[in-house]
Amino acid sequence: MLISASLSAKTKEYYLTLQNHVFVPSEIVIPANTKVKLVIVNKDDTMEEFDSFDLNREKVLFPGKKGHIFIGPLPAGRYEYFGEYFPNTARGTIVVEANHVD
């Protein structure tokens, strides 16, 4: 039953909120070598684009909507991200730890 086994394994979700052109929290810690889902809620009334050269990801975030991206598995390290439209305030880091425990 490969199908039922894959449905029972749930990808860990981490939440990020964009409010007043600031990502909160500005730092998220995730485990190394694990695929995770980053759920981003845009509480602003303007569009933003989550962008990360380190993660090779970008995602348009519509006003008042929720979006998500999958990241990983990643080696331990620090991965920067920013908002393309408000890069001076919408900034953050994903810290990937080898011995991270939720």
Automatic annotation (TrEMBL):
* UniProt domain EfeO-type cupredoxin-like: residue ranges: 4-96
Any Pfam family: Cupredoxin_1
Name this polypeptide is given: EfeO-type cupredoxin-like domain-containing protein
